[in-house]
Amino acid sequence: MTFGAGRTSRVREVVSQVRERTFPYVRRPRAKIPWSLYTRAQTREFPEMLQLIRGVVDLYAQEHPDPGGNPRPRGGRPAIPFPDRLRALLAQSYLGLPNRPAEGEVEVLGEALGVSHPFGYKTVERSYGDPRMVTALYALLEITNRPTFGLEEGFAADGNGSPTAVGQHYRSARERQRGSER
Questions:
Q1: 71: in domain
Q2: Tens digit of pLDDT for each residue in 66-82?
Q3: Shortest CA distance to 124 belongs to which of 108, 107, 112?
Q4: Which pLDDT score is estimated for 127?
């Protein structure tokens, strides 16, 4: 991303003013902190997150009906519904758990999440290799951003959680490291 010469010189001018402490900064008035709302947000976070996971996956399932996946071979367990696996991955990510403990947590929280079939940790593990899951996770990101579309004024290019940004950060860190080794 390149800026025009005028923008670059303005940025340099502002940086110089900040360094010299001559920038005309106007302090905002201190806002009153609504502690009761803060407390409520803290106490309601977990149940509201479970409701969000359930609701957003239900919406995704309505918009993208599961074609049934691959037919299973004769015998074996029946296939776990795609929305159930998606809910499990989202809950696992939110709780920050490895696959095995996630199995137990999904079993306990299954009703709140809307999980209809019990399954093991291997199902969670195998779900990460399903390309439909990656597509679904990006679609869920888009669904959860719908309510704020057009309302946000500030934007950070790497604030979307995309692996591209992580790769770029890693690459730039390695380049800096290699530069200091020379």
A1: no
A2: 766 555 566 777 888 99
A3: 107
A4: 92
Position with higher pLDDT, 95 vs 169: 95
**Residue 135 in contact with residue 64, Cβ under 8 Å?**
no
Q: What is the dihedral of CA 123, 125, 130, 133, to 10 degrees?
A: 90
Amino acid, single-letter form, for residue 14: V
Which amino acid, residue 141? L
Q: Which two tokens stand for residue 155?
A: 């934007």
Cα gap 37→21, rounded to integer Å: 37
90 C-beta neighbours (distance < 10 Å), count: 21
Tokens representing 180 are 């200091």
Put simply, whether the predicted model's pTM sits higher than 0.70 gets the answer: no
Q: Which domain holds residue 60?
A: 44-65+81-146
Q: Is residue 110 part of a domain?
A: yes
Alpha-carbon gap, residue 88 to 114, rounded angstroms: 10
> What domain count does the chain have?
1
Is residue 8 situated within a structural domain? no
